[in-house]
Structure formats: structure tokens, C-alpha cells
Amino acid sequence: MSGVRPGTAAPRGGTASRGGAGARGATGARPGGARGANRAPGEERALTSVAAGDRFRGEEPEHTPRLWHVTLSVSGARAPLTEVRRALEQLAHDHPFLLTSRYADDHAEIRYWEEARDLHDAAAVALRLWGEHRQTAGLPPWEIVGLEVIDRATYHQRIAAGYGPAPATPVGVHPF
């Protein structure tokens, strides 16, 4: 039984228990002879399924969303500070996932958590954020000049090592 994964059918007619003789033999032989010998001719093996989202120890499905910490940096021609602040506040209001925005009259930095399947998806969303909301939030016509996307474990390792923004950094829109 050592080669049987959870959710699969046990051999039919076998009497070996988990700790019984032959249950974990080095040869992999099953009680009763060769593979399939316990089935009647023509009898099909019972199939079982694994429910969606079930995982085996150590396996992480690729489609499971993960949290990514995103830092988006933008820059461009000078704009009135009051307009930049108002636009970033509007963006934060429209999208409450934004954690912190810092700004000056010619650049800004936005930090937030993104839930995505992988780094590529998180980066793609981040690269669209500024352009897609430029009109609705009244953002300055700045270009993206920097992007960092890291997974949650890396973010927490950096914080623990004393790198990156302190967790006590105030949430919201603030000048540099």
C-alpha cells in the first residue's frame, strides 16, 4: 500500500493492513500475486476522483492564487502637488487594495498587494494600473519607470532583515 496515494482505490481482496506483513515490502509485491490478479477477468478497476482544490503533501497547484507585493514607480513632467495628491487619493478610493502612495511634483510610488496566479500575472496587472486609471482618477500623464513584484515570503524576509519599508509605514497617500 506504500505506493497508493490518498483517494485511490486499495487493491481488491487484499487483507494487508497498514502495519501488517508485506504492507511495505521492498519489492512492491502485493498480497495475492501479480498486479490485477485479484480482479475477475473483464472487471474494471474502480476509479476515484480528487475534489477540486485537494492537494497532496508538498504539492502547490500552479493555478492557486498567491499574494504579491507590488511597488510601482512613475515619473514625468512636474504637476501641481495638490492635483497629484487628489489623483492618488481618488485611485486609492477606487481601488482600496492600495496600501501606500508617496508622491512629489514629478514622481510617485504606489505599494500594494496583488492576488495573482504567478509573478507574470501580477506584473501585467501592475503595468496596466497607471494607464487604465489615468483618466478616471485624473492621474498625471507620467510613465512607469520602475516595477518590483515579490512574493509574500520574500517581502517578510526583507522586513525581518531590516530592508524595505517598515510595517509601521502609514497607509494612505503621503508626500516623499
Protein described:
The protein contains three helices and five strands. By secondary structure, it is an alpha+beta fold. Strands 4-1-3-2-5 form a five-stranded mixed sheet. The N and C termini lie far apart (62 Å).
Which regions are unreliable across 5 or more consecutive residues at pLDDT < 50? 1-36, 47-56
* Strand numbers in spatial order across the main sheet: 4-1-3-2-5
Biggest β-sheet strands, sense, barrel: 5 strands, mixed
User: Fraction of residues in helices?
Assistant: 10-25%
Percentage of β-strand residues: 15-25%
Structural class: alpha+beta
H and E order: EHEEHEHE
Distance between the termini: 62 Å
Return the average pLDDT rounded to an integer: 75
3D shape: elongated
Q: Helical element count? A: 3
Task: Indicate the radius of gyration in whole angstroms.
Answer: 28 Å
- Count the beta strands: 5
Q: What is this entry, summarized?
A:
With 176 residues, the protein is α+β, with helices and mostly antiparallel strands.
Comma- or semicolon-separated keywords:
alpha+beta; disordered N terminus; 176 residues; elongated; 24% helix
Summarize the topology.
Layout: E1 66-75, H1 81-94, E2 98-103, E3 107-116, H2 119-137, E4 143-151, H3 152-161, E5 172-175
